[in-house]
Amino acid sequence: MVARVLDDDGGLGVEMAIQWIEEGKRLANEALAGASGPLYWTREYFGVEILGNQTIASDHHDPVNKVCLPTEAFASALQRWQEFLIAGPSAESHTVEINVC
After folding, report:
1. Nearest Cα to 50, choosing from 42, 59, 39?
2. Distance separating alpha carbons of residues 70 and 51, to the nearest angstrom
């Protein structure tokens, strides 16, 4: 599920996906810093609810299909995915591992 959320560029291409990931990183860091209430980072089909130290990724069309992970792990996944996108197709092959709870 997390991979599907990260891969959803909203049909806007790589540059906009990089900016969208930057927004997700900002929200994750805001939550880790103690923001009150849930923070949302979403697209048309998939979304993320960030609740302090816990993040829930879900499919908007299948509410049962969700996964939770620590917000620190989510922020790390965003960073690594952004680095992968910035490196582009000419970069060496990458594997981005994400541990979920």
Report:
1. 39
2. 10
- What would the pLDDT profile of 33-63 be if each residue is shown by its tens digit? 999 889 998 877 788 999 999 999 888 888 7
Q: Is 48 left (phi over 0), alpha (psi -120 to 50) or beta?
A: beta
Task: Give the number of other CB atoms < 10 A from CB of residue 9.
Answer: 16
The strand ranges marked E within 22-91 are 39-42, 46-51, 54-59, 62-70
Note the pTM of the prediction, 2 decimals: 0.79
Report the DSSP pairing between strands 46-51 and 39-42: antiparallel
